[in-house]
Amino acid sequence: MPTLCRLSSAVVLGLMAIVLLGLLLTWAEPSVTSCSPIYQDAAWAISTCPNDPGVTNTMAVWLDGIEQPEPAARLEIAHVTEDGTSRPTVAVLYASGFVRLKQNAGPSPPIPFGSSFILGPAYWPDVATYHHNPQLTHLALDTAGLPTGPLRMQAWGINHDFDVAYDLTLPPPHDRQTRLHVVQTYTATANVTVDPARHAEAQGFKLAQISSMFVNEGGSCNGGHAGCHDSNAARYIGNDLVRHQATFTDLTPSTSLFSPTLPLGSTWLDALHTDDESWQGNTPNERIALDALPDDHTITPQGWISASTNPNDDNVSLWLHDDSAASQSWTTGQSDQVSYWLLVQDDPPEPWADLGLRTGRTFLDFENGCDCFFAHDPRQTVTGTVETILGYTDTALQLSYDLNIANGNWAQIRCDFDPPLDLSAYDHLRFDWCGDPDAANSLEVGLIDQVTTTQRIFARGYHHATHRGWWGQLVVPFNFLSPWHGGTFDPGRVVAFFVSVVKDGAEDAGSVGSLAIDNLNVYNVVSRTVPSDLATAITNTVALTKAVQWLATQQQPTGLLKSWAEESVCTAHTYDQALALIVFSREGMWTQADALVGALAQAQNTDGSWFKSYKYDDLSLPCVHCHKWEGDIAWAVYALSRYLALGGSHAQARTAMEEGAAWLAARLAPEGCLVIDHTEGTIDAWWALQSAGSDYRDGADQLRDCLLSYYWDDVMGRFKGGRDWQQPYLDNQTWGAAFLRVIGRGEDARRALSYACQVLRLPAQGGQLFGFDGQGGPWSVWNEGSGQYVAVGGDKADDFLLELLAQQERDGAMPGSPDDFGGGGVWTTRWHGVAPTAWLYFALCPDEPFHATTWVWLPLVLRSHP
Known about the structure:
By secondary structure, the chain is an alpha+beta fold. Among the domains are: about 10-350, Beta-galactosidase, Chain A, domain 5 (Distorted Sandwich); about 360-525, Jelly Rolls. The chain has 15 helices and 47 strands. Strands 1, 2, 5, 6, 7, 8, 9, 10, 16, 21, 24 and 25 form a 12-stranded antiparallel sheet that branches. The longest helix has 16 residues, at about 630-645.
């Protein structure tokens, strides 16, 4: 990328327009006295305001399809605080395309508005002409999902030669954070050429902006005010994977904020307010978080600060620039779209701290030196360096390496501790890390203890994971670390930590890449607080109904459902069909349910099993993934049992269920476990056999005893992954909690769920959403798993359900994840699928999917085992 040139006087004139447009927006705090309420419920209140001193145009407003009597210069949205004591205004939408947000807390003095967001796009058609913000003409509000779901809005407007449309989603705000999702579509109404000089300065075509104010820190400004700033820094992660931060006190206005420029390497751009001082009060920090980065990294952050002494002057502008070739020249009718979140909160976004994921002891943070160095096998053709970098918020340590191409090559950061660390009060290792999206290799993590003079390595590998190119945490139970030289790990004498990048087979790329780490931490999970009861989540009939309707649209003429809406291969996964069958049966949608039962019966193998997936558009239903997995088959059996219990009458249903159950029963080993060593598959098989009838009661009892004897970890209070496999898995805790509850072990059910909450919870890479991953890592948010946790009554189920509802599309579909990632044993996708949508449904109706037959409630006596 070229170095950003010093902006010309024409640019300064253009930016003065920003000041004029932003003038008085800083002053114009929402005033209910000049506004008319149009909606109110127990949580929300919405008002229209016919005029605003900083806005010249107005927009027509529709509420639930009814046009309001008076056009509005702005719309104000208030929401009740979490303690219910006040209802502050948290969002204001202006007809000028400006948006102001603040977190949903109601302290005294109240939180003020500060910086503004500006909807896009903005552009320079020539060197002297700048079109800064859209003029909104229409705004439509849909309150059907309130009060527990998001407020949905649509807006339309014009920015000179572009028609613009916005699909806006405002989830119920948190006291700590308010967020607005924007799907922004823009269509050229004339031929447009973006000025090449402005494009080269990373300001030719701006996707979204922040308008703010900075005069000084600790000094005075016009009007006798002190603390004259609403923001005092800006930051982002570049495509070099390093944090780039502009501290405004270090700049001499008028100047650009970032020089040179770099494209985004993560999804977000922040306008920071790092202190609590401002002439207005403690104004929020602001973030623009893209839903996804383009693969070619063609979005660049930039900004400008003008010299000013006026606290009413929005003299700071910050934006995301579209660098792509497509944004430089437009023909009439050409259209494009970008989607992003606008976030505000009190302190600078640091999602792990915001979510309480910084407990325990941080024993190395790289702020004050360390004994860390590059290590490798000298017999291998490997090179590398270890150096400090600017991490997410502070100093981090980065390994830069070249593994070459040979399998087994490795490069390592090793940190030694003298004297040894005593970590005996803890049971899980946790640290921050960031991989390289262009370097897909394997990850290896280890601790080294010392007994007398002998150093012993205890380590764990994660296959094909280092291409997860954003900051997150890795959580490793101590007992998941495998002894390389025998013995039992002694956490009281830890002499070293290491993390390695390994070329582990053909799937890994080897070659050049980087890996950064920070905040090496340990924490104690076994002593966690366990909730005294299971949670019951809020309900939302609108969201539930839309989920059902979307699932129905995925059903094909064969009777099977397309598993992923965006997938090009015609694939219907057996597990997904089982989930949909339970949904259709509970809803009494017998036409859909019967068609699905017929397809399952047709696809069933002669031995009673099913393959993993089928080609849904071929009437002969050939398999796509032609292997068998006990878990899928168990879910098909269980779904057929639910279909029958709820009133289904398809002639083939019972036979298909019983033949599937017989296949599962034949998979039991003499000791009473499945012939495969797999906790999730065993739990699934128990649910299937206990529901299939009295002929399978003995098999279900054997599986119950197996689960409690071999797979339940009573010390940690969770289900293991296998008899001797300690990696955390979410399915085992959620479906296992349902199993534990119905056999009368309610406290253990809550322990399992609380373990998941301690080790598998994480934020999306932009911090805009949070949830659970399916296994440690954790790697990325998995919406299906979050739905499972809510459905079985995990602690704070309401919070996790709100995260799911914030992502549900207007048509009812749920994405698999806010982030695309495949590696480390997981696959998450932003595609919309049957499984995440079905689990949203189950989260909204907690009487499904898990049901036990009456006999399961009888007293339990474990068989003795050798």
